[in-house]
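re: ur question from yesterday

yeah so i grabbed the chain u mentioned. its 239 aa long if i counted rite. heres the sequnce exactly as i have it in my notes:
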Amino acid sequence: MNNQAEQRLNALHLNNEGVQYFESSQFEEAGHCFGEALSQLTQASHCDAPHTSQDTLPESDTYFYWSDNPTKPLHLSPSTCSTNIFLCQRALYIESGDDSCMITAPPSPSSLLDESAAVVYNLGLSFHMMGLDYITNTNKQKLLRKAASFYNIAVNIRKQQQMGKKEKPSSIDLAILNNMGQIYHEAFDYSTSRKCFEMLSHNLMWFTRNGQLECIAQSDRKGFMLNVMMKFPDIAAAA
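ran it thru and got these structure tokens back, copy pasting raw so excuse formatting
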């Protein structure tokens, strides 16, 4: 097993261990696993892959699937949030379609980008959940800022991965934009929040046009729709 493939394998195992913690509402433990997974993927991306002909190199298929909601999902209300906004509370499992292939073949740059975006999203989500679960406002805002920063990194990774390709958003894009919109709304940054939900709406339209909307869990689909239809305070009028 080459070093790059081994680090990638460790990263996927750590990510999926973190998702199991997440599903059990152990968000701090989940965040630790996601952070370790990201470290392994970062190291793998900087490794020199063996010089193997692309014609003979087997492809390692990576599959992503959504976790269940946590055993103790957060119900956003005026006591925990400035308004009742839907939050996507699902993390992403990452699996390889062929373990033997994943172990022996160096991962493609595209695979590493996809996997890194998922792990970074998971890490942001763990901070997001911890932040909303906090009573102390200081800790809450610190954790939510961390969550927003990781969501932004995930957005940039997805942009890099999509560069030069025909638009094809994924459900992870919906979750990231939705949750970023929630954080900025919580911080009363309505302008940025509105932009997030406008981009979410644009992506939902792509899913609708391409007959992919039914692929999204019904509860999540309903939550996304409610968020994009939300009315924002008229800041200019208030001023």
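noticed a couple things. The longest helix spans residues 137-162. also The chain is about 60% helix and 5% strand.
anyway ttyl
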